[in-house]
Amino acid sequence: MTRLLLSSLLVLLAACGPRPGTTAASEAPPQVVLNGVQIQSFEGEQLVLAGRADRLTYQRTEGAVTATNTLLRLPGRRDATQRAPAGPRGGMEIRAPVMEGSLSSRQLTASGGVVIRTADGMVARTPRATYDAPAQHARGKEGVAVQGPNYSLRADSFDLSFTDGTFTFEGSTETVVGGAK
After folding, report:
1. Exposure pattern of 149-166 as b/e (b: 16+ CB <10 Å)?
2. Is residue 145 in some structural domain?
3. SS (H, E, C) 54-116
4. In terms of Cα–Cα distance, which of 47, 51, 49, 53 is closest to 34?
5. The domain spanning residue 59 has which CATH number?
6. How far, in whole angstroms, is CA 22 from its chain's centroid?
7. Would you say residue 31 lies in a domain?
8. CA distance 18 to 31
9. Which three-class secondary structure state does DSSP give residue 49?
10. Per-residue pLDDT tens digits of the chain, which is 181 residues long
11. Residue 157 is part of which domain span?
């Protein structure tokens, strides 16, 4: 019996060791991989963000999260009875092929062609944006193109406050107001 227990323990230890062909320098696989994920983020009992991702990976040791083909909805100002963020009708919607972030710092980088839609009908496109969840603030330094109901704009960089929905554009900026319909 002791011999069986000892051999079982050795088999388990061997199974838990490093995989053949891997080295310490290679990147560890994610500890959690989820496919077809619904995302919800709460502050206390209030839902502050909802969305989905085709795939989400989580690395527990660093608190690192990577999501692909992601849609996030942030609420606008709403009454206390509205539970879920309503997307563009009531706030903002953010789409990106890749979003990488840290749960501990609550920082996020979206890349691969980020699209932001607001309740007012504005659509902003940028190659990359960073999001600071505690400050509810996003910024991009790789250019932005904005299309609104009666205007278009291009700028070198932007800052966006999610708390009041205001954009600040910097660098070389070109704006076209009105236009042919």
Report:
1. eeeebebebbebebeebe
2. yes
3. EEEEEECCCCEEEEEEEEEEEECCCCCCCCCCCHHHCEEEEEEEEEEEECCCCEEEEEEEEEE
4. 53
5. 2.60.450.10
6. 30
7. yes
8. 14
9. strand
10. 333 333 333 333 333 334 444 444 456 777 899 999 998 888 788 888 899 999 999 998 888 999 999 999 887 655 444 444 444 446 789 999 999 999 888 899 999 999 999 888 889 999 999 999 888 888 999 999 999 989 999 999 999 887 776 889 999 999 999 864 4
11. 27-177
pTM of the model: 0.73
First-to-last C-alpha distance (Å) of the chain: 85
Q: How far is Cα 141 from Cα 122, in angstroms, rounded to an integer?
A: 19
Q: How would you class 36 by CB atoms within 10 Å of its CB: exposed for 0-12, middle for 13-18, buried for 19 or more?
A: exposed
Torsion of Cα atoms, 130 then 54 then 48 then 103, to 10°: -60
Domain-located, residue 102:
yes
